[in-house]
Amino acid sequence: MKRIGVITFHRAINYGAVLQAYALNESIQKLGYEPVTIDYKNTFIDKSYDYKLFNFKTMKSLITGILLYTRLIKKKKSFEDFRAKYFNLDPITDLYSEKSIKHLRSYKSFITGSDQVWNYSMTEFDIAYFLDFVSDSQKKNSYAASFGFDHIPEEYTNKYKELLKRFNHISVREEQGVALIKKLLNRRAELVLDPTMLLSIDDWNKISRNYKDKKEYILIYQLVNSQTLIDFAVNLSKETNCEIIYINDALKKRIKATYVSGVGPQEFLGLLKNAKYIVTNSFHGVAFSITFNKLFFVEMLPPPAKVNSRLENILETFNLRSRQIIKGQNNKIHTDIDYVAINEKLEFERQRSLNYLKRILEE
After folding, report:
1. Which residues of 145-170 are buried (b: 16+ CB within 10 A; e: fewer)?
2. Is the distance from CB of 40 to CB of 91 less than 8 angstroms?
3. Among residues of the chain, what percentage have pLDDT more than 90?
4. How far apart (Å, rounded) are the C-alpha atoms in residues 267 and 344?
């Protein structure tokens, strides 16, 4: 099998980041190639997950710190175990050494993405995610890469242009990315699905660990804490008589709910697929809600977040603007989602995106 090198945010302790990396690998393998995740370490990203215990002034703060640390370490371990089990990793420590460059020549091609690999603020503008370590431009491709914003600051424009013009194939995850590539390079970028949506329910069921709860429940999954989102979920619970399950590593319980902490990627999938309702402000929370055909509600991330373009794009693509929580309100609580039409659209977009990925690999 011909090896395909993938560079992405696979090391992040983030459900969306790890599961999109898994999904891209699975999709490449289904097309008859050998995906290899380059185990590249971005120090800026890695240090945000470097959990440490610090000095505490009181016994109470020490106990609290130990309890929180224990939860975070448990979660980190579950992500490490997931990567060890499901990823074919190439442990390259220095992409730019003579040894690494010689080794990387054996790859048929490379793909950067998905996730916000082209967001300068998330990586401290790490150009490895632009495949600058690959000398052959014909081997440089992106799949569903995301900028995470709709405007490139003037001081970065020339650098982006220089890095991206060397790509053979460019595909992005949002319309805003298409517009940015057009403006930078006067070139058309392909708009494709996030990798998580390339896999079917059956594909995800194979690795999910079921969350067993006899009662119907509302799942809260937040990237950023939002009081209006929580208030909405509480009101939804009263209206539907469903209990709340809250994915949250914090020790303090803010609402009446079953709190689950230290959750790994497989348990996360189980919580999503068995929920009656999902309330979220996460792009991947929405993506999995659609894949699993769930009733969901989504709130845009509050300022100063600048990454709502991906949420807006997925809602527009699947005609789901009616599921948006605005100022803590949504009047569609008792309205079902027409998943017959949405699944037809999803299957069409899935096949179109897979055909594009296949074209990259076969060239």
Report:
1. bbbbbbebeeeeeeebeebbeebbbb
2. no
3. 79
4. 28
Residue closest to 86 by CA, chosen among 194, 220, 199: 199
Tokens read off for 36: 């290899």
For residue 156, what are its two tokens? 């970065």
Measured from the Cβ of residue 313, the count of other Cβ atoms closer than 10 Å reads: 21
d(CA 273, CA 168): 37
Does an H or E element contain 289, and which?
helix 283-291
Structure tokens at 359: 């074209």
Query: Band of the pLDDT at 55, cuts 50, 70, 90?
Result: low
φ and ψ at 245, to 5 degrees? -115, 130
Q: Each residue of 180-215: pLDDT tens digit?
A: 999 999 999 999 999 999 999 999 999 999 877 668
| Euclidean distance between the first and the last CA atom of the chain, given in angstroms as a whole number | 15
Residue 134 has pLDDT above 90, yes or no: yes
